Amino acid sequence: MRDHKHNVGSPDRDRINVNRTNELQDWTKTLGISADALRAAVQNLGPVIATVREHLGK
């Protein structure tokens, strides 16, 4: 297992950080949408996961 030294601190489990590649990849896979669609949703709705999921119907 690799040690990700840039991923320090505890993750905020209630928010999506589209500026972190690993989070962007995980959430696009989980939600089944493109990175551009996720970025747009976060820009328009904010980073709260529950709000983004509700908007996307997921």
| Overall tally of domains | 1
Q: Number of helical runs?
A: 3
What class, by secondary structure content? mainly alpha
Low-confidence stretches: none
Percent strand = under 5%
Largest sheet properties: none
**Average pLDDT, all residues:** 87
Note the overall shape: globular
Series of H and E elements:
HHH
Q: Report the strand count.
A: 0
Q: If you compute it from the alpha carbons, what radius of gyration comes out, rounded to the nearest whole angstrom?
A: 12 Å
Distance between the termini: 31 Å
The helicity comes to 40-55%
Protein name: DUF3606 domain-containing protein
Pfam families: DUF3606
Region (Disordered): 1-20
Question: Explain this structure to me?
Answer:
This protein has 58 residues and is an all-alpha fold. It has one domain (12-56). 52% of the residues lie in helices and 0% in strands. It has three helices and no strands. It has helices at residues 21-31, 35-45, 49-56. It is globular. The termini are far apart. The mean pLDDT is 87. It comes from Xanthomonas fragariae. This is DUF3606 domain-containing protein.
